[in-house]
Each structure stands twice: as C-alpha cells, then as structure tokens.
C-alpha cells in the first residue's frame, strides 16, 4: 500500500510543512522520500517561515539550567512553556531547592561529563548556543542534534599572548543563510590590551578574524541578536566613573560595526549598562548602586523611541549586600522573569519592593534563554538541498 497514492506530492508537502516538529521527526521514518523532503533545506526554511509567522510558536519555550565556573556537578538543562511561567508568583527555579516548585521537562545537556558548562549564550530559529570552559556547542533541543565547534584562532595573529576575557554572541545571517557565532576576546600582549573578534560560520564550519573593531571594552554579558546584528554593550577606554557607554551593532552579513550612541540619559552614577532583547525590542539595563532602570527602544534605530519601562530595586542577600537581577522576559500583568544569581524568579513591577532571598551569589549561576521548535540543524550538511 502506498501512503501517498491518492495525494499529489505538492499537497503532501503543504500539509507536512504546517505540522509540529515532533510530528515531523516521526514522519521522517515513513519513507525515504519523506525523509529526504523533511530534511531538505527548502523544507526546513519553509517550515521555519510558517513557524515564525505564527505567534503561538515564536519564543514559546524557556530553557534554563545552571552553570558552575569552579566545581561542576552533573549538569542538566530544563524546559517549560512561557505561557505557564506567567502563572507563577515567585520562584521558578533554584539551585538551592532539590524539590522544584514547578513541573518542567528535563532536557539533559549536550556537553560531556568532563566539560564545565558555563552559559546559555542565546538562541536563534530553534538553535541554542552553549559554552563551556573550553568548548562552544550549537544544539537543537527539539531534534537533540548538536555540534561542537572547531577551536577558534584566538591570539594566532599575536603569537605569545594572555587572554583574560571572552564574550560570545549568536545569530543568523539571512543574506547568506548562515548561522554565526561571534567570539570577542580581550588579548593582553606585552603589557598592551587588544580586542580580537572571531566569527564562526556554520556553512563553512570555520572561523575568521575581524580587524575592524571600533574600540572600547565589551561588557561581560553575551552579545544580543536582533535585526541581523549582534549588539554589544561597550564602555569607552576610560577607567574613571561616568565614562561613556554605547552600543555597537555588528552586522553578521557584512561584518560592519556600527556605533549606536543615541542612548537614553544614564546619569553619571551608572555602574554598568547591559544589552537585552525584550519583547522583540532592543533593551538596555542601566545598573546603579541599589537599583536598575530598564529602557526599551520601541522603534529600532530611532533614538527618540527609548522609553523607561521599569525600575527594579536590587535584592539584598543574607550578607547584606545588593545583588543585581537581570531581566529575561516580560510576562503578563507587569510581571518580569529575572535571573538572580542562583535562581530564576518572577518580579511583580506593580509591587516594586526589594526582596531578601536566602541564596547568595557564588560560582553556581542560573542561566536561561528562550527558543521555539524548529528543524534547523546545527550541522549545515544535514540540510540537503533537494
């Protein structure tokens, strides 16, 4: 019996391209022709286009876990729907609680037991970028396919060097249909500091070195992808308080860096400025001594569209110190999902009071990002062009 004997191939394709990823993974076992169709580059892009145009699919899953820079326990990552997170009132996830207060799905972790999982760098079109103390991995949590990237050419143009900080960014180059990882390194050579930017291409499975960095110190948080560019929070080369902060947008298609200096007024006592993507908009988190202001650019590239959306008091830990929360998601009814050291919590902006949590900031850090299901493979050759 032939499954598609009575249906035109084009109609079968139009039906399949609208189905969830998990169903398609099962249907790939139906026949060789269905496997070839569903794994083709054309089908993957068509399915992705339909998914991204459907608000029910876009960023509908939160993936989270913990990183440890010193003593890695068995690492796991978890997932839950964003809609269900909105119903919580306080704690979503904590490293201090062996009995989770919320029901989430365990995903495992693509790193080996010998690696030290460090961070969820970000996600794009269903692919998640993760980093460890020595490796970078692209991973599709839905298909469970992963790829370890080749080693970057860090410091090769300098010979002898010391690398004392690394930041990563991940995004999609639509012009060349390519997924790229950007590695930003501060290189110390003979007492001098130099910025090095390396770009990995999924299509070529190789790195290249950029030499056109406009200057400045990149903050310690990952670059954020929006509108074809990775955005970096940068401070002018100045050790004094009140130094200028600005945003550098790195176009992934052209490798051109553009300085965005038309930022909201940060005042002179701002300690740190971090870039985030909130509700699909470029956002800036201005960190002061005891609180944070979050600004959102409602119209990308228009300086006059910056609005201050929330002021978040810092949380006092058991040692009496102020620890910084970092916003991850805007939820319904003024709630915000925040990353606070060892835990992920809900902050209700309608009741802006400082909270005191029992946990303290240490080498174990909770980390999170959002993604949606897709067929995009971390390996370019998996998507055969048929």
Question: In words, what does this structure look like?
Answer:
The protein is mostly beta strands. The protein is 10% helix and 42% strand. It has 5 helices and 27 strands. It has helices at residues 9-16, 21-27, 32-38, 41-52, 82-85; strands at residues 61-68, 77-81, 91-94, 105-108, 117-124, 127-132, 136-140, 145-148, 162-173, 178-189, 192-201, 206-210, 217-218, 224-226, 229-235, 245-251, 257-260, 272-278, 281-287, 291-297, 306-313, 315-316, 322-323, 326-330, 335-340, 343-348, 364-371. Strands 13, 14, 15, 16 and 17 form a 5-stranded antiparallel β-sheet that branches. Strands 4-2-1-27 form a 4-stranded antiparallel β-sheet. A 4-stranded antiparallel β-sheet has the order 3-26-25-24, with no helix packed on it. It starts with 8 loop residues before the first helix and ends in a 15-residue tail after the last strand. Mean pLDDT is 78; it is low at 355-364.
